[in-house]
Amino acid sequence: MLAVIAAAAFAGPLIGTALGIDPTAVDLTSRLAGPSPAHLLGTDELGRDVLLRLMEGGRISLAIGIAAALAAAVIGTTIGLVAGYLGAWTDRLLMRLTDAIIALPLLPLLIVLAALDLGKLGVPARIAQSDDVSLVRIIILAALIGWTTAARLVRGATLVTKNRDFVRAARSLGAGTPHILLRHILPNVMGPLIVATSLSVGDVILLESVLSFLGLGVQPPLASWGSMLSNAQDLIETGSQLAIYPGAMIFLTVIACNLLGDGLQRRLDRQR
Amino acid sequence: MTRFVTLRLVEIAGVLILMSFLIYALIGLMPGDPIDLMRGTDPHLSSADIARLKELYGVGQPLFGRYLAWARQAVIGNLGYSRLFAEPVLTALLPRLANSLALMGTSFVLAFAAALGLGIAAARRPGSVFDRTLNLLCFAGVSVPTFWLALVLILIFAARLGWFPASGIATPGNGGLDDRVWHLALPVLTLTLASVGSYTRYVRAAMREALGQDHIRTARAKGASERRVVWHHALRSALVPVVTVLALSFGSLVSGALVTETMFAYPGMGKLIFDAVMGNDYNLALAALLLATATTLAGNFAADLAYAWLDPRVSY
């Protein structure tokens, strides 16, 4: 199902060109139209084709989800490896930090982070005001809070693995710490890590949709499913179908990610 | 035990102080300047007033100095004035905290009770049609965007059926309890549905683990009734991991409440934080964020105590 959604989202521009419809084309004469052969799911408040907008938004939502989940996995893996392998106070410090981040009310803090004035952080105005900065900002935010699961998993696996014979052997042969971590320990934690990452794609998509819905995420002219819902909320009386579709897409995509992660988990358990 | 409680309290205080500095620094990075904003809204401010205000807020001093100036005032209960509500921050904050606690508390109790019943029923018949259906429903609950769920509930129950109000906390001029419960119904339903899925999954997993343990077999062998085995022997050991996970989930409950309150225009802490950040109300945003953090930490602390009480092996 995930494959179908992804394929549809990325094929969107092609289909659009094929049908001769531009997803950003404003057609004020056919606003809020119902489904028709030309517009399969009807049109929105500016007469844009809803189906194509859904595909466009999906591409952005999925891209953010995958990019942030990968970034979070990299951060989490690094922290988990270091904490698990070095142990002692490094471990205690990093794990306390992880626990603290998990326990905090994250959304309120994220709202502040998303509203920050980048100019005050010394980001050049040219970059701070470009269209893509909202995308990058979301990915960074999601990665910053999303690494905790991966860190705990990797740390746990590292603790188990680091005293296995082949790691001791490598160490006695004079292998350096980075070499041991990357070549000997990392491959042994890949399974659970992949599961956690596929689950976190869903989490990130949810997070992105909430922030975009609150007006703090993806900014126009870009559109994600969350920001489409945000627009639709104002039209709840006249065009409630506009609110149903993007939400249903988020719902289906996140379910697909979670089921994928669950399936991978089961396969992994059976192998053991 | 006393030692443990003291240690935890010191730790919580430490985290709070650290967070207050962090949040203070972050709020300083938000767009705009508080004094300039005041000047914009009140033309009567003279430049002497401005200078005095800048002195009071420590403008121009390094970040840490400003933070200390704020903290010194905050400790004696002066959290400043809210620009948005035109009243002292504490006056704006406290009633909304009570509203939020009512919403979160009710949802938490409902979701936890439902999760216990459903999770245990599923764990007793693993692989059954009921178990698999419930599993799918839980996935749906975990995956549904809270704001969309709220939107759909509003569409169905408020717009179409007209059973419940779509927003607010009470009908103006009617402060009765029944009216408030009526207004709470949809927000509570939203937040409960949003959290019951993950709770049920925890309960089910912990219960399955517990039912497979030796002491359960012993209890069965000794002829304990199935009911006693499940609800007494197994539940007690299953609750230990469940409580741990629940303690970590208070933060996401606060996050969920923020979305729910914003959707239903319910005057609680979450909506307040959102409005304060959006309206550049620095004093209010700062105090509200800290209070939300403190509430979450208090929840974690309560869960720690419950954990110690449930698990006789844990001694501090």
What integer is the average pLDDT of chain B?
76
What is the total tally of β strands of chain B? 2
Q: Helix fraction of chain B? A: over 70%
Sketch the major β-sheet of chain A. none
Structural class of chain A: mainly alpha
- Helical content of chain A (DSSP H or I, runs of 4+): over 70%
Which word captures the global form of chain B?
globular
> pLDDT under 50 segments of chain B (min length 5)?
none
Number of helices of chain A: 11
Structure, explained:
The complex is a heterodimer of chains A (272) and B (316). Chain A is mainly α. In chain A, 73% of the residues lie in helices and 0% in strands. Chain A has helices at residues 2-19, 50-86, 88-103, 106-115, 125-128, 133-146, 148-161, 165-172, 177-213, 225-233, 240-271. By secondary structure, chain B is mainly alpha-helical. Chain B has helices at 2-28, 34-41, 47-57, 63-75, 89-124, 129-143, 146-160, 177-211, 214-221, 226-263, 269-278, 282-310; strands at 81-82, 87-88. In chain B, β1 (81-82) and β2 form a beta hairpin. In chain B, α1 packs antiparallel against α12 (282-310) and α5 (89-124) packs antiparallel against α6 (129-143). The longest helix of chain B is centred in the C-terminal third of the chain and has 38 residues, at 226-263. The N and C termini of chain B lie close together (5 Å). Chains A and B meet through α3, α4, α9, α10 and α11 of A and α1, α6, α7, α10 and α11 of B.
Task: Summarize, please.
Chain A is an all-alpha fold and 272 residues long. Chain A has helices at residues 2-19, 50-86, 88-103, 106-115, 125-128, 133-146, 148-161, 165-172, 177-213, 225-233, 240-271.
